[in-house]
User: Which sequence fits this backbone?
């Protein structure tokens, strides 16, 4: 029988992996854009990650989840692709570029360029419908 402190059981492993978030340096940092930062802000995010005590857990989760968004564990999406390729891990999910309706509709990206693309798509769709009616 497993002892209560045995962290090799699957439920303990899952809990241990998720508990790192409470120690993350980025926790509560709503002043930084982590998912599509401008270059200068990206550097600030990466600097914060570099000193984070749980960086390795964060990076591992992003790689295991094949997360295609933002900065995790000090890696942006391109960095995660390189690490996955070098480590023979599954590649992060591939997403359409920002500023497209498919990124807005299928991947729930709500950035300004994707929102604008969705509005344009809907306007064109409605115009086509009114012509065919």
Assistant:
């Amino acid at each position: 029988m497993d002892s209560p402190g045995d962290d090799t059981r699957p439920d303990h492993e899952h809990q241990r992996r998720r508990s790192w978030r409470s120690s993350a340096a980025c926790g509560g940092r709503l002043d930084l854009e982590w998912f599509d930062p401008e270059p200068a802000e990206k550097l600030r995010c990466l600097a914060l990650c570099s000193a984070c005590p749980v960086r390795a857990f964060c990076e591992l989760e992003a790689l295991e989840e094949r997360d295609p968004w933002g900065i995790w564990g000090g890696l942006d999406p391109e960095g995660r692709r390189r690490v996955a390729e070098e480590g023979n891990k599954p590649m992060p999910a591939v997403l359409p570029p920002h500023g497209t309706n498919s990124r807005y509709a299928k991947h729930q990206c709500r950035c300004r360029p994707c929102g604008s693309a969705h509005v344009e798509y809907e306007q064109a769709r409605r115009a086509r419908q009114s012509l065919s009616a």
